Each structure stands twice: as structure tokens, then as C-alpha cells.
Amino acid sequence: MFLLNSHPHHNSPLDPVDAETLGEGGADTVERFLAHRANHAETPLHALPALARELSVGAVHVKDEGHRLGLGSFKALGGAYAVIRLVLEEAERRLGRAVDIAELHSPEAKAVAASMTFACATDGNHGRSVAQGAELVGAKAVIFVHGGVSEARVAAISRFGAEMVRVDGTYDDTVAEAARVAAENRWTIVSDTSWAGYERIPGLVMQGYTAMVREALRRLPEPPTHVFVQAGVGGVAAAVSGHLALTFGDRRPTFTVVDPVRAACIFETARAGHPVKIAHGEPTVMAMLECYDPSLVAWRVLKHVADVFMTVDEQDAIAAMNRLARPSGNDPAIVAGESGGAGLAGLVRAATTPAIRAAVGLDETSRVLLFNTEGATDPERYAELVGMTPAEVIGRRQAQGVTA
Q1: Which amino acids are annotated catalytic?
Q2: For the region Disordered, what residue ranges are annotated (predicted)?
Q3: Residues 313-324: pLDDT tens digits?
Q4: Which listed site, 95, 103, 244, 268, has its alpha carbon 20 to 30 Å from 86?
Q5: 360 and 306 both lie in a single domain
Q6: Which of 235, 236, 230 is nearest to 259 (CA)?
Q7: Which CATH number does the domain housing residue 106 bear?
């Protein structure tokens, strides 16, 4: 499915609160916080010239978030950042003075953090980030997961000391249950989706994602003309498109939001022109994107700056994983999880479908930026779908002389 943005707010300025969250000042704060993370390192940007030739575009670059902060996903930038911000803000409230990130491990800040509990719902990656952030500051974390979250992903979260709670139902059911239990216990909910009356913390999570956009723009030889980014509740798509719009203004790239066809809550929201909760159906292989209720904050951004909405099916996503693992020519091999390559799946579908290609404006001069939003966060599932282990794919890349 394919849809051009016809919302009345399309191409109008972002709301002031979103412009402040996703603009240069917010991105500056994120990078300053990252500088204090012991395991922080910029993630690689890979050029894929052979793929670009196959798709008849000028260039394809992939920002590979499978290496971010030891968590294997871009989500490492959001949840942990929000936890740290909230601890420092609570320390300021209690101490009655400004508390900088440099004081994060001071006795005063540690005492505040030890008294706080952070909770969230997750399909896997966001919960891992919140749990890591809580461990980093010395706070408690309680993470809610639904039955479809694999044991491997649960184990990856619990290794940070988080308490795990299984919830019957879908991701959206876990969001509701986490919010209910957190309210009862006076815990702080750190969600990557938002609802009426709960917007600031999801905004902080989205702000964290701007770091990967900034890094990519610094490394690209020229600014992108087209960007394809996958969507679950819409947070990463909104963060990327919002920051790009604020950075480039009228010269911003054409932005395409890619949904799984089985969980297309952003696509259906765009079609309706307002937030739409869709019915739960057959699960999608793109597990990290299996969301049925859009984030209100994300939609508030996307209705202004997203240009195209489209869906991809299960085989599109699996083909993208395999295409990255077994590249053409001298393109580097990349480990992309089930959801990580969905943006590439959207690009391939758009570039090879004449009507979509023309509508999006892809041609031989187009410079496309993609984000591999996760590595093999479930290694067994990855090997099942790709026919190689993540280690074998990395070995292919190292044989090519690519070390990142």
C-alpha cells in the first residue's frame, strides 16, 4: 500500500514544542549526555554503491545502529537517555539547584536514583534501553512484555537487573498495564509511545534518537534527497523526519514512512487523517514494529513532515535482511534484524514499482539514507531467517576489510 501525505498540516511548521524537542538545541543536549557514557561510540555509516546501481539511484547509505551502546538497536539512544534526564531533574527538585550530567554518579544523585523505579512496556529493544539506563544510574526497572516477546529478548533485558512482567495480549495491552501498575506504585513510566496527557517523556525518548541523524549527516558526502524509515508507533520516524526538516527547511529530503502491512497503524492514521488504533491480526515477523496504536506525539510531527506512507509485507522484510547479509559487489555485509531492514524493504519496493518510484521522485541522481534500526537482537531467529549466524555475516564483512 502507498499513500501521499494529504493532511492539511503537511509542509507547515512543526508545533513549537516539537521543534524545541527535535531541533539543534535538543540534539546538542543528547550528544553532551552521550559523551558521558563509558561505552559510547559513533555507529558506522555504510555506502552501498552496488545496491544503488541495482535500484537505479545515485547512492544508498545505511546508518547501522546494530552497534549502539552494546544493545544492538537505536533504542539504546532513547530510553536510557530519558531515564538519565529524569533522574537529574528529580535531583534538581530535591536539592534545589541545577544538577549537571557530570554529577550523575555523585553521592547526591545516586541517592535520588536509588529511590526511583522506572517502568515501561516493550517488544524488546526499548525495554533493554530503559533497563540499561536504570542500572547505569542505580535505579530500579520493571519491564512489561507480551507473550510474543522471545525468551532471548527477555533474557537480554533481565541481564541489566530489571524485574520482568509477562502480560497477556499485544504490545498495546502491555502499554496499558505498565501505565496502570506504575500509577498504582508511583513509579515513573518511560514509554516510547504517547497518549493524551502523557507526552513529555516520549518526547525525550524521541530526542535521544536525533543523535544518529546528526552522526549520519556529518559522515554523508552530500545531504540525502530521500529517506526511508520504518515505523512502529512512529517515534523513530518522527524523530528522524522532524530533525531533518528543522535542519534543512525547504531543502529537506523526501521522507517515506514504512509500516509492516500486518501492523500498519501509522499508515492507517495517515489515511484517516487522525490517530487510528487498528485491530490486532496475524503477528508480523517485524516484531519490533508490531504496534497497533500510534504515538500521539509522533503523529503530531509526521503529519507535518512525512511525505509518503507505505507498507511492506513479510517477505519484503526477510528479503531485505538477506540482501544486507549477502550484498552485491563490494558492498559491506550488514547484520539487520527482522525490523532493522524494513526501511530498505520500502526502498526496494518503491524503486522497483514504477508508480511509486515516480510519485516519490526516485531517479538516477537520488541519494537515499536508510537506518538499520537493529542488529540480530534474537540471534536464533536471525539465523533461521537468513541461513547464517550473525557471527558468520560479521566474518564476511571482516573478510572484506570492513572492521566496523
Answers
A1: 75, 123
A2: 1-22
A3: 999 999 999 999
A4: 244
A5: yes
A6: 230
A7: 3.40.50.1100
